[in-house]
Design brief:
Elements (H helix, E strand, L loop, with lengths): L2 E5 L14 H5 L10 H9 L6 E5 L8 H16 L5 E6 L6 H9 L2 E9 L3 H6 L9 H10 L3 E6 L8 H13 L4 E4 L4 E2 L4 H6 L8 H18 L3 E4 L5 H4 L4 E3 L6 H19 L4 E4 L4 H5 L4 H9 L4 E4 L7 E4 L2 E4 H4 L9
Parallel strand pairs: 1-2, 2-3, 3-4, 4-5, 5-6, 6-8, 10-11
Antiparallel strand pairs: 7-9, 10-12, 12-13
The chain binds iron/sulfur cluster (SF4).
């Protein structure tokens, strides 16, 4: 779906979570003023129509009611004319009381993205979230009862977290049957309290390798649950890409591609292990299958010297064909069943 994002860095947040620096992740220093929303949205819509207006980067439903009104009022004419189909906001589970949800619903909000990060209480305490995990399910249930679409955001690798914790949190999230997920492995961003803990040796974020492999497994689990992941890893911004923007952790501007490539690597390895010498993929999947800097092929050819990958337009996207049979790559890349339990 096309999104028209407006960033309101940290606006409405009751306090600062220790990993968060919205100015860096959104690439925007100031809160976008409601007075400029209509003009900016008109300019964005000049290149297309439909989709949702998104207010990201803060705790929208905890803003003063009058300010929420100003933002939503600015979008109202575009909703009435059908130029946009709805509004989405990001917020926290402790800012989703019935009255807050009612206001959102009455003013055209269709989708709520809930920053949960982890379902482990000690992790939430470690990062100064200011709430525990028990409030998440009731908040999601209230959103559902109001007929709103719900997304959940998770952050594997926060202080006190682990791969096991990330998978356990994912399972808890999936039990709530969200419409979609966003997964952002934790990184140490300039200007966050996490920097001091990292420098003191009290926190070690995931390596890129750990995060890619963990997110590949999370992707596989989500496929079994038929819940889409709409974003993996932070969106690149000039601030993040600048020297010192990210002090440590698994930031990569093409993180999602690395995860997709890891899934392909597992699928191709499985194909080669069955004795296949050649596998066919759709040409549009070839870059992911070959891997960043061909690292999948280097890995595979060390284990299976004569294995070949061939782009083939007749192959369906997301599948590989070997031995005369078509296989869905994500299914073939199956992780250990115990990760589901
Ligand atoms: S994670 Fe969400 S609630 Fe916490 S400081 Fe960042 S924007 Fe605010």
């Amino acid at each position: 779906m096309r999104l028209y994002p407006f960033f309101i860095p940290h606006a409405g947040c009751p306090h600062r979570c220790s990993f968060c620096q919205q100015q860096e992740t959104s690439g925007q220093q100031e809160v976008f003023p409601p007075e400029r929303v209509a003009a900016e949205l008109s300019a964005m819509l000049a290149v297309g129509a439909g989709g949702q207006v998104a207010f990201y980067g803060g705790t929208f439903s905890a803003l003063p009611g009058s300010l929420q009104e100003k933002y939503l009022e600015a979008v109202s004419p575009f909703l009435c004319s059908g130029q946009v189909s709805g509004v989405r906001i990001s917020t926290r589970p402790d800012a989703l009381a019935d009255r807050q949800i009612d206001r959102l619903k009455q003013r055209g909000v269709a989708t709520v993205e809930v920053g949960v990060q982890s379902f482990c209480d000690s992790v939430l305490e470690n990062v100064n979230r200011g709430h525990g995990s028990a409030i998440v399910a009731p908040a999601v249930s209230r959103l559902r009862s109001a007929g709103l679409e719900v997304g959940i955001q998770l952050m594997p690798g926060l202080p006190g977290g682990s791969r096991r914790e990330a998978l356990a949190s994912l399972r808890r999230a999936l039990e709530l049957k969200p419409d979609f997920l966003r997964i952002y492995p934790a990184v140490v961003l300039r200007g966050t309290p996490l920097v001091d803990r990292y420098r003191a040796g009290e926190y070690r974020p995931f390596s890129l390798e750990e995060a890619v492999d963990c997110c590949a497994e999370m992707s596989w689990i989500c496929r079994q649950a038929e819940v889409p992941i709409i974003r993996l890893g932070l969106q690149a911004t000039p601030a993040l890409d600048a020297d010192g923007g990210v002090l440590a952790g698994p930031y990569h501007p093409a993180f999602g591609q690395l995860v997709r490539s890891r899934i392909w690597r597992r699928a191709l390895d499985r194909a080669a292990t069955t004795g296949a010498d050649v596998a066919h993929v759709h040409p549009a999947d070839a870059a992911d299958a070959i891997g960043h800097r061909r690292d999948n092929m280097l890995y595979l050819n060390k284990k299976h010297a004569h294995f070949e990958l061939k782009p083939s337009p007749g192959t369906q996207r997301g599948t590989l064909v070997f031995g005369g049979t078509s296989h869905v790559a994500l299914d073939l890349a199956a992780f250990a069943q115990e990760s589901l339990n």
